[in-house]
Automatic annotation (TrEMBL):
Residues 9-50 form the HTH cro/C1-type domain. Transmembrane segments: none annotated. This is Helix-turn-helix transcriptional regulator. CDD domains: HTH_XRE (cd00093). It comes from Rhizobium hidalgonense. One of its GO terms (molecular function) is DNA binding. InterPro entries: Cro/C1-type_HTH, Lambda_DNA-bd_dom_sf.
């Protein structure tokens, strides 16, 4: 699957990355990323794969064109570099139940 400029922009937004962050992770010039996302440059397949792999490593799942359009999704439980405020974390009641057998500890 090819990486589109829109997917690249959306993927960076999902993980909170700047062009500089992607540039560092993929070892690609920031200007290459900026020009690609602006639609003024068609990088080589190797460069596109490097960008895509770096974003996937950060927790992005690329969704292929399936009639509804290509897209991106943040993988559940990903180790993405997204800052969270632990004081605002929501705990749902169904996750608070202790379903471990007696004496299991923890």
């Amino acid at each position: 699957m090819c990486l589109s400029p829109a997917q690249c922009r959306a993927a960076r937004a999902l993980v909170g990355w700047s062009e500089d962050d992607l540039s560092s992770a993929a070892k690609i010039a920031k200007q290459t990323i900026a020009d690609f996302e602006a639609g003024t440059l068609s990088p080589s397949e190797r460069i596109l794969q490097d960008m895509k792999r770096s974003l996937e490593d950060a927790g992005v799942l690329f969704i292929a064109e399936d009639g509804g359009g290509a897209g991106v999704r943040l993988v559940k439980g990903a180790n993405a570099s997204i800052d969270t405020n632990e004081t605002e974390t929501v705990q749902y009641e169904e996750h608070l139940k202790n379903d471990a057998p007696p004496g299991a500890g923890g």
